């Protein structure tokens, strides 16, 4: 079982003015392909796009491989993909419970976390599992200053 977090990076460009939108998919270990995001490629100069953090669970096989697929979804014309890479943090890395960085963990940090609830906002993902939820609230309360 692989855990931790993944970031998928792609650098691409296209000549001409009409954009092409591609979808980036990763193969699920359970079968099928999960759409990670879309990237509109329109510029003559390379543009980079990172998707993440994503939970590695279910996407990384036991040898550490991740299968990716890039599919043209909209538009027409040739696209140049310079670089497609996967960065992986093998251990989940959470953020500090002092979310606003003022040196204490208190109601202000709680307010930020609650405002980010159910999102993938990294600043409030204290346990590093990719989403903001009850486990992160537990980390914050466990680090409460006063
Ligand atoms: Ca704080
Ligand atoms: Ca979390």
Structure, described:
By secondary structure, the protein is mainly beta. The chain folds into two domains: 5-89; 107-142, no CATH class. It contains two helices and six strands; from the N terminus they run E-E-E-E-E-E-H-H. Helices cover 12% and strands 36% of the residues. The site of one calcium ion (CA) has 8 residues, from helix 2.
Kindly summarize this structure in a few lines.
This protein is mainly beta and 146 residues long. Helix content is 12%, strand content 36%. The protein folds into two domains: 85 residues; 36 residues, no CATH class.
> How large is the count of helical segments?
2
Tell me the major beta sheet.
Answer: 3 strands, antiparallel
Number of domains: 2
Bound molecules: calcium ion
Share in helix: 10-25%
- Got a strand count? 6
User: How does the helix and strand content classify structurally?
Assistant: mainly beta
Q: Mean of residue pLDDT? A: 88
Strand order across the largest sheet: 4-1-6
Low-confidence stretches: none
Q: What is the terminal separation in angstroms?
A: 38 Å
Strand and helix order: EEEEEEHH
Key features of this structure:
146 residues, mainly beta, 3-stranded antiparallel sheet, 2 helices, elongated, binds calcium ion
Topology of helices and strands:
Elements: E1 5-13, E2 20-27, E3 33-41, E4 47-55, E5 68-74, E6 80-89, H1 107-115, H2 134-142
Helix pairs in contact: 1-2
Bound molecules: calcium ion (2 copies).
């Amino acid at each position: 079982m692989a855990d931790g977090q993944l970031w998928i990076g792609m650098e691409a460009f296209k000549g001409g003015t009409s954009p092409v939108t591609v979808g980036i998919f990763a193969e699920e270990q359970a079968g099928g392909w999960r759409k990670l995001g879309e990237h509109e490629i329109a510029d003559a100069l390379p543009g980079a796009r990172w998707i993440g953090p994503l939970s590695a669970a279910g996407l990384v096989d036991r040898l550490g491989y991740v299968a990716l697929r890039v599919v043209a979804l909209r538009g027409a014309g040739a696209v140049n993909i310079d670089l497609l890479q996967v960065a992986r943090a093998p251990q989940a890395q959470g953020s500090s419970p002092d979310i606003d960085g003022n040196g204490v963990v208190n109601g202000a940090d709680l307010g930020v976390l609650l405002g980010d609830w159910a999102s993938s906002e990294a600043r409030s993902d204290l346990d590093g599992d990719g989403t903001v939820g009850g486990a992160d609230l537990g980390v914050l309360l466990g680090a409460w200053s006063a």
